[in-house]
Structures are given as C-alpha cells and as structure tokens.
Amino acid sequence: MSLPQNTLLSGKRGLIMGITNERSIAYEIAKQAAAAGAELCLTYAHEKLAPRLEPIAKELSASLCLTCDVSDDAAIEKTMADVKAAWGNIDFIVHAIAFAHKDELRGGITNTTREGFHLAMDVSAYSFLAVTKAALPLLNDGASLITLTYLGSNKVVPNYNIMGVAKAALESTTRYLAAELGPRNIRVNALSAGPINTLAARGIGGFNEMLAHHERTAPLRRLTTQEDVAGAALYFLSPLSQGVTGEVHYIDGGANTLGPTPAL
C-alpha cells in the first residue's frame, strides 16, 4: 500500500539503522519517514553492505549513508561525529538491528553457546543503549527513539531461543532509557511486530509454519506487513505521540491477544 505524502516529519532529521534490503522493516520505515518530510541518514553494519545501501539511500533522497558497526563503541562515536558535522542535531533514531547465529535459532535454547549468547545480547540489545548514549549530545528537545522487538521476548516461541532473551533485554533497556531521558523530553518506545517475511526472520527455524499460524489465528486473519509497522513508527517518530514513552507497542494483527504460539 502506498501512502500519500504528508508533513508529519517536515523539518525533522534522523537516523534509520538496520536496513538490509527493500523487504526489511527498516526500509519501509525509512520510506514512509521520507514521504512525511524527514531528512534521513541511513547506517549499515560494514562496508560490504555499501553497494546494497547506496542505491536505497539515493532512492529515498537520504542526505547521509554511513557505516556503523554497533559492536564497536569507537565506530558508533565516529558515526555520530559525522552526523554532528553534517547536521548538528537530530530528532529521531530508528534502531532496527539484531543478530544471532543462525544455527542457534533452531532446536532448543540449550543449543546456545556462551559466545553466541554474548553476541546476540551485544548486537540486539546493548547496541540500542550504546547508540543512544553516543547520540545524546545530538538529540533535540522532543526527540524520539524507537527500536524493534517481538513477542518472543515474553512468550516462548519455538526456535526463537536466544533472540527472545535478547529482545527481553532490549525491552527492559527501553523502559530504563525512557525513565532516564524523560526529563529531557526525549521519548523511547519499542514496536513489536508480528512475524514478517524478512531476510533476518527467514533464519529462524520453522518460520514458514510460524507465518501460517499467525495468519490463521490473528484477529485480523492476515499477516502483519512492513507497511503496518512503518505506519505505527511514523506516529511514534512524530509529535502526535509526544505523551507516550517507555512502552512496547504490538503491531501484530492482534495475535498477542491469543496467548503464546504453540509448538509447531
């Protein structure tokens, strides 16, 4: 669904972190934010992704397209220094970054190695805190930060494993950040999407069965789409949500009302 242009984010500047391709949730958020008048900076994890991201940056008329390895504090600081040099200040950040070893997203959670646990927690949860900390000197009054989570943070979803644990940590981080930054009039929220057929999601064992279950049981009787999540993100990035912070918001067709996903 293509949405008409509007002015919700006119005059706003922000970072979209975590676009992998045109099917990713972050891409659709960036697309709708640009259509709403925002000036964008896109970031990607390493130089190998530059050929994939540069055409997207051009398509969305993004002013900046920068590398940012969120597992490296120095790299995060360098990215924020580049943003400050170009823009001075920013109004929002979209954190759409998560990673776990593919072979640890199959079977039981006891498949998780110590190294895999640390990696998933670092990239998927701590990175939101690290990025926020580095961005604090750049954030304007009324700034909005959002991150992406999933129902597996508080209910057992087959094969989600360590990523569910990392998302639980991410959601807790969201609440603590909201409490700390609220007095500065900076809002922090998490969006919990239903299962969506993205490159990252396809690494989860049994993902096709998860999609089928969601479509059968969600009250809307359809799959959640990238556009659904991006529309909600637009609200949370805009002044319309100026009184909302520290929350996890479910954009999943109402599937969360039906209880935990059964074994598939």
Question: Can you offer a commentary on this structure?
Answer:
With 264 residues, this protein is of the alpha/beta class. The chain contains 7 helices and 7 strands; from the N terminus they run βαβαβαβαβαβααβ. Strands 3-2-1-4-5-6-7 form a 7-stranded parallel sheet, with helices on both faces. Helix 5 (162-181) links the parallel strand 5 and strand 6 (187-193). Helix 1 (25-35) packs across helix 7 (226-237) and helix 4 runs parallel beside helix 5. The longest helix has 22 residues, at 114-135. The two termini are 31 Å apart.
Query: What is the topology, as strand order, of the major beta sheet?
Result: 3-2-1-4-5-6-7
How many β-strand runs? 7
Number of DSSP helices? 7
Q: Residue-averaged pLDDT, rounded? A: 89
Query: Ranges with pLDDT <50 over ≥5 residues?
Result: 258-264
Order of helices and strands: EHEHEHEHEHEHHE
Helix content: 25-40%
Structural class: alpha/beta
| Radius of gyration computed on alpha carbons | 17 Å
| CA-CA gap between termini | 31 Å
Largest sheet: 7 strands, parallel
What percent of residues are in strands?
Answer: 15-25%
